[in-house]
Amino acid sequence: MEFSSGFDDLQDFIYVNIDRAANDGATILEMMEVENQIGKLLVELSKSQDQEIGDGTTGVVVLAGALLEHAEALLDMGIHPLRIAEGYEMACKVATANLEKIKSTFTFSKDDIEPLIKTCMTTLSSKM
């Protein structure tokens, strides 16, 4: 199966030749023959996510792709790349601060593992 995807002016963004089926983002990205430099960076981003966290490989690529798409629109409006990067840095700080505000904890013990089981079921439900 062949697959191509990318921006209108970057038709060679990603070309994939898959001989086997896979639904794991990291596996699919490993099987890709990526020629575009930005695409190669996204593959490396996915590998790094997989090595550090072991999950979320598709999510980081989708998020990075969305950031790149919006950056392209800002570039088209004449905004300097350094300003765009500074804006993303500021947005990251705001998002991190908000995560600190909305985070929650739960208590469990050897005798009461129900909160842990509920959290695991919620977290892993998309993996089944």
Question: Which descriptors apply to this entry?
Answer:
128 residues, mainly alpha, 2 domains, two-stranded antiparallel ribbon, 5 helices, 2 strands, flat, disordered N terminus
List the helices and strands and how they pair.
Layout (H helix, E strand, L loop, with lengths): L1 E4 L8 E4 L7 H7 L5 H16 L4 H20 L4 H22 L11 H11 L4
Antiparallel strand pairs: 1-2
Radius of gyration: 19 Å
Q: What's the mean pLDDT score?
A: 81
Shape: flat
| Strand order across the largest sheet | 1-2
Q: Give the tally of structural domains.
A: 2
Decide which structural class fits the backbone.
Answer: mainly alpha
Fraction of residues in helix: 55-70%
Note the run of SSEs as H and E: EEHHHHH
Oligomer: single chain
Distance between the termini: 25 Å
| Main sheet summary | 2 strands, antiparallel
Number of helices: 5
- How large is the share of residues in beta strands? 5-15%
Low-confidence stretches: 1-15
How many beta strands in the DSSP annotation?
2
Describe this protein's structure.
- This protein folds into two domains: 1-77, no CATH class; 80-128, no CATH class.
- It is 59% helix and 6% strand.
- The chain has five helices and two strands.
- Helix 1 (25-31) crosses helix 2 and helix 2 packs antiparallel against helix 3 (57-76).
- Mean pLDDT is 81; it is low at 1-15.
Give a brief description.
By secondary structure, this protein is mainly alpha-helical.
